[in-house]
Amino acid sequence: MAMQTVIRNARILTLDERDTEYAEADIVISGGKIEALGPGAAKEAREGAHVIDGKGLLAMPGLVNGHFHSPGNFMKGALGNSPLELFMLYEVPPLMDQVASPRFAYVRTMLGCIEMLKQGVTSVHDDCFFVPVVTDDEVDAVMRAYADAGIRATVTLDQPNVPEHQKYPFLKDLLPPQLLKRMSEVRLMTDAELLGCYDRFMANWHGAASGRLRCAVSCSAPQRVTPAYLQALGRIARERDIPYNMHILETRLQRVLGQENFGKSLIRYVHDLGVLNEQAMVIHSIWVDENDIALLAGSGCSVAHNPVSNLKIGSGVMPFRRLQKAGINVCIGNDEASTDDGINLWTVAKVAGLVHNIGDPQYDDWPRPVEILTALTSGGAQAMRLPQPSGRLAPGFQADIILLDLNSLAFTPLNDLRRQLVYCENGSSVVTTMVGGEIVMDNRKLLTVDEEAIKAEARSLAGEFSDYMVRCKSAADELEPYYRQMYLKALDTPVGLDRWAGPMVP
Ligand SMILES: [Zn+2]
């Protein structure tokens, strides 16, 4: 019979559909899921159960990092603020050719796991990119780190496969011939090579670690892959009912790209190619118009909202309430340590709870704290398409539970629990993190990872990484003037809508 764990006498925020809260109640956990919950539920526990005293603690569902790129984990503070198109030029330069070593990829992934588990993030949806090509060794290193850390992870292979200049408007005409030639000669993975990587990835890792690890698919963005590959991934997502990650209309320039290169919005483009459906995980969705919102809503897809990343790279403000009124499921993510300069989902939640106040003067439409908390938990779980119900505290749900110390300053004095979770908490009140019924952090100590050893190894790799960043910079610098011209030319192209908080300077 499975070992039981009982959390006794905790304050409980279930974040269920009725937003049920208990001033004092118990949770009985067995076989990785919640068996019973409520006042007096501990009476149903068997003798010999592991008992956690919940007095003075808040139990709530673990957070879901709804959109994340673990390859950015070494890049806190590494890059300044600039628009996405220039930012990516320095983060993943198209003329760069150095592959990460498996050990570096392991430590890099583990560093993110440590930061997330300590703050009560129990699930992560990692859209894992590879520079310059996907290798099985790097994929396995990433997945081993997730297996060892004890976090729940759904991971993709995010790998563009068209020449860089095809991903943008105007760039081909702006580049001098010799740079265009070098860009055209960069080795790209074929559709068949990438689908082969997915075959091995799925065979080795989908459902591994007792179902805690899952595979998903990613095109990165629809303009970054061949239409045939875009559709092949769509077939895999549908057959396996797994998420299909696609960054769409993150920036204004991408709206111009849709008009210039495809003659339609990129949302309409994926719809017309048959890959916008309930498996679709549409990331950002900022520069969408009303027709796009109707297509998103009709498809049953989820949207990932990453407001700190959107602020750092000046992408604009997602129309949160319009998506919500259309009935679209929204989750919240960090995006990555390079655009977030941290992996703190509580900070992202606070910004999500604030930024829409300057995006919409109708103050009745500003997000409410419980909506942010729901997006952080069941919204993220729904977008990950996990087979077991997750993201709420209720019988039958996955036991992904965190305990927060209500004696911390964030909750002293306690005026409004939901508001203080969104606007006061920074992750430091989390004392216990449980994933699938397994305690991975107990009294602020990680049980699955030697945190100090990983941090020491990360510091020892920092020199090698800064050399890599120097090479990235020189690979990017020669292209920068042409990307800047492209950005300015796109600014001069009307798109018929505005998602910046301030009016565009003419
Ligand atoms: Zn992203």
UniProtKB/TrEMBL annotation:
SUPFAM superfamilies: Composite domain of metallo-dependent hydrolases, Metallo-dependent hydrolases. Keywords: Hydrolase. The keyword Membrane does not apply. GO terms for molecular function: hydrolase activity, acting on carbon-nitrogen (but not peptide) bonds. It comes from the Bacteria. Residues 59-440 form the Amidohydrolase-related domain. PANTHER family: AMIDOHYDROLASE-RELATED DOMAIN-CONTAINING PROTEIN (PTHR43794:SF11), AMINOHYDROLASE SSNA-RELATED (PTHR43794). Belongs to the metallo-dependent hydrolases superfamily. ATZ/TRZ family. This is Cytosine/adenosine deaminase-related metal-dependent hydrolase.
